[in-house]
Amino acid sequence: MIDQIIESTEYLQSKGFDQPEIGIILGTGLGQLVDEIDIIAEASYNHIPNFPTATVEFHKGKLIYGILEGKKVVVMQGRFHVYEGYSLQDVTFPVRIMEKLGITTLLVSNASGAINLDYKKGELMLIDDHINLQGGSPLAFKGVSELGERFTDMSAPYDADINSKFENIAKEHNITLHKGVYASVVGPQLETRAEYRMLKIMGSDAVGMSTVPEIIVANHLNLKVAAVSVLTDECDPENLKPVDISEIIAMAGKAEPNMITLFKELIKTL
């Protein structure tokens, strides 16, 4: 993997990706932040050596480098998932590349379903902790200790200082920002009523199919990391209705301006 990381990094450096400070992963239906960036360089995933290719129709497939609020950023416009058939190492490979390029902070967004019924669709949730239900670890491979501490500490995977700043920004801009526990499942099927009940008993406030692998690797690389979920549906097992994926995408788009405000205002402070 080390050779692959070097090859991918050198390719991006040759395309003008020059010492970004902050990495950003844009989740489902949350691509409009790109419009706020003064773009210097970009690379399609299928042109980057060793990179996976996004196969989900509402996930773009570009790595973008530019200036946002005076900071050099590298942005994943579209991410990878285990449900696409990728390994956890594939899913998290871009995080390793962004770190090699120079980032010290990783910001992540995603769409998720609200298990906590006090939270409503269209609102945002700051991830304070998580439960990994993806059936494996992105650190479970030979040679991982050459890239960082094998037994990575996860007692506080989300940066408390960044989370505090997010909460202050939300108050200043009258944005509803809950704080809770995110459960990450494999998917791509949505949950049954019994599974939603289980997730609630386990202490989950929201459920999705991404993010946790990237967070684990970010901690492995000693990056500061924070993540925000757009709650796109309400997962009430006693009143469960079929979910329309187009409605989820539309709800993510509706909440997107608030997400963009949070990210832009935060980046000003970093």
From TrEMBL:
The keyword Transferase applies. The keyword Glycosyltransferase applies. Residues 21-268 form the Nucleoside phosphorylase domain. Keywords: Glycosyltransferase, Transferase. One of its GO terms (molecular function) is purine-nucleoside phosphorylase activity. It is an enzyme of class 2 (transferase). This is Purine nucleoside phosphorylase. It comes from Winogradskyella thalassocola.
